[in-house]
């Protein structure tokens, strides 16, 4: 992921009604479309607003990735007299994982947790982020199912689990959808202990009981 700044400027001496609203609506549209991650942070600067945001890839803001909402919001800005933002790439986000560069993704994982600021779609082979605008997606909860019909590879949904009774009880868990065993021999990408191929679900041994096990060292 890249960190970039988008500078929105009003023409000299012109007061733009609801300027900030328009900027935020545009950035929100970019975010929904996966072209920026999160909502960014806004600063009031001389003559306009400066938004600092994370981009899933360097060319994420290219016109060819825009959807109709992004184009509409950009037109709103233009109608108010605001030119398209000047984009300055600041550098690579050092905490982020490199985007997927696989020729072909065997399956995809819809991976959303509150601790990850990266795109919610990950490649099943390398676990690298896949920019949402690279797949013909819709947003919302039906994303995984819709995506699967369109990209024609399995799309897994991740059920994160934070609390559990014990490590042993956790490992006995069955797939919550079909009730069949789904524990893997080895966790996939060191996160997913559970995988149900039939229901396209992934999960983990609850974080709280796992932490005890991990910090217990070699017992
Ligand atoms: Zn990949
Ligand atoms: Zn299942």
Give a summary of the structure in a few sentences:
The protein has 219 residues and is an alpha+beta fold.
Question: Any overview of this molecule?
Answer:
The chain is an alpha+beta fold and 219 residues long. Helix content is 22%, strand content 26%. The protein has helices spanning 19-32, 68-79, 143-151, 167-171, 207-215, and strands spanning 2-9, 37-45, 48-55, 86-92, 108-110, 121-123, 155-159, 183-188, 192-196, 201-203. A hairpin with a 3-residue loop joins strand 8 and strand 9. The structure holds zinc ion (2 copies). The site of one zinc ion (ZN) has 8 residues, from loops.
Number of helices: 5
* Number of β-strand runs: 10
Q: Alpha-carbon distance between the termini?
A: 39 Å
What sequence of helices (H) and strands (E) makes up the elements?
EHEEHEEEHEHEEEH
What's the helical proportion of residues? 10-25%
The geometry reads as elongated
Task: Set out the fold topology.
Elements: E1 2-9, H1 19-32, E2 37-45, E3 48-55, H2 68-79, E4 86-92, E5 108-110, E6 121-123, H3 143-151, E7 155-159, H4 167-171, E8 183-188, E9 192-196, E10 201-203, H5 207-215
Parallel strand pairs: 5-7, 7-10
Antiparallel strand pairs: 1-3, 1-4, 2-3, 5-6, 8-9, 9-10
Helix pairs in contact: 1-2
